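Model: Ready when you are.
Researcher: Fold this.
Model:
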Amino acid sequence: MNSIYLEMEGVLDQLEAALLEQRPLSLVRVGDGENIVMSQETVWPTEQVLQERWAIKANLGQKGLSLPNPQLRDEVAASLQRADIVGILPRGDSTINAPDYLKRPLTDMVFAHFGISPPLTCHACVNRELAQNPRFWQMLAGKRVLLVTREIEALRATLEREPYHLNLVNALPFDSYDQMQDTLEWIQTNQDTFDVALFSCGVNAVILAERTAALAGKVAIDFGKANNIILKGRAN
């Protein structure tokens, strides 16, 4: 990968410039879930994928998708090929709680398979840092924010209060991949109602954020487990 790696301030600079210039920007992230989804019948046989604990949880309805799903695999890969900033795990990283072979080694394999080479990369856990960074929240002050997540009520109430004071113009419930098409249609139809979109919906957020930037011309952020930090003060 010949990407330029951005530290936190660099990511914030990119987001801020896009918001100021009112141009599209997508920030997405790759962790063990995205790796597993993209590995289906590309670098691993389906049987191997389905044995992973993450895949078992997904098929119990805990990840907003079920496997096998080659369409989802191809959509995630396509969005990663087009996204502006892609969060990836550094080699040997211990931030996320997953076996090492599901982290950067698997990212490298699936990126090679699909020919994914993002222009800009950052740490995959950038969302956790954003959630705790005052500059990020200051940047969103006065912006019209669209929130897309499963836990709408609790998150909405918190984000509208101190210290966040977000202007949440809309909050869309998103539970599973089945809602992808309807959600993207709504976003495209209502693109004039918001400036920035935050997505906390697992692997689906990669597609949602990249497509929202492309279809609606907005800043769109895969916010991941940042909602847990905001609600509980921790990522898990």
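Researcher: Now this one.
Model:
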Amino acid sequence: MPASLHALGGQSAALREADLARRAAPGDIDKALDYARAVFVLGLTEGDLRWYGAARAALAPWWDARALPARGHYLRGLVRQGFHDFAGGLQDINAAITLDPAQPEFWSWRFSLHLLASDMTAAAADCAEIAQRFGADEGNACRATLFYRTGRAAEALPLFDALVRKSDYQGELTQGWLRFHQGEALRVAGQPDRAAQVWEQHLQAYPRAHGVRLALAKLYNEQRQPDRARRVASVKSPSDALLVQSLLASRALNDGEAERLAAQVEGRMAVQAERGEAMIERPQMVYYIRTGRDVPRGLALAVQNWREQNEPADAVLLLEAALQLNQPTAGEPVLRWMAATGYTDPVLAPLAGKLQAQLKGAR
């Protein structure tokens, strides 16, 4: 395990203590859960799935247990969804809520999983329940996210603007979550410059915020500002996703680094294959599709991935590959998803228009 960015930031001692504590008492579920939570958060904030593997290993003695304490179901659910077992993750989080419905994070993660599965009715019900149980601000954070994911980004913006200034929401993880979604809402609303400003400012305060950094690098590449994308993505020990964004920027800049970066991407994928990891990750699809390395393989991955999760970035990749290969029927599920949810954004909309034109031509 390479040195974690967070560990380098001074958390290594606490993490080591948690690891030693759970190893000293292998049958103590509370100590295992403490460690699993710590490393899951690292994986989430740094974009390094190997931390999820550490959390999975810590929970191994209880991985198949039917009855767990609420926190056990919750953390196992988080790790399961981290490894794309979304049904299992939702089952565990539902169990956690049944045992202890007073924990807002249980409800927030359930909302996120419902959103991922495009179950907007269930997601809206979660928002209403969150508002009733935990107050208007918590409900508005949920509603704002639901708004921009269902074609109502303009309604989301004032909610995010108010929430990011609340005194109760100034913690690093909370700000990271809010600023990521605030920037996404701005991007979806057709305000990429404001989105970039929000994300740049957040990174100045919290340079380790992987989700925001990745979103910003991706936005700059989409806006054909590869010099800025390369600056944002170039960090020590980049995640797979940031490495691929660096590669895309280098190709656009023609700076002589693309071949070296592509070799790094290929090397990482080879190691993952040797470990037998079966997950479809977005960086693979971006690499195959946007570099032209293997668009048919990218399309096959995108089609399979769409059956598991429905995220806007995945929709874009699926349509890009379908259009490149003149296989518009492969992208039809995205058109149905857009119609059902109301979601659109400035990148997805023109792709959807082109796909519809191809479908008409094919018929």
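Researcher: Key takeaway?
Model: The chain has a mean pLDDT of 92.
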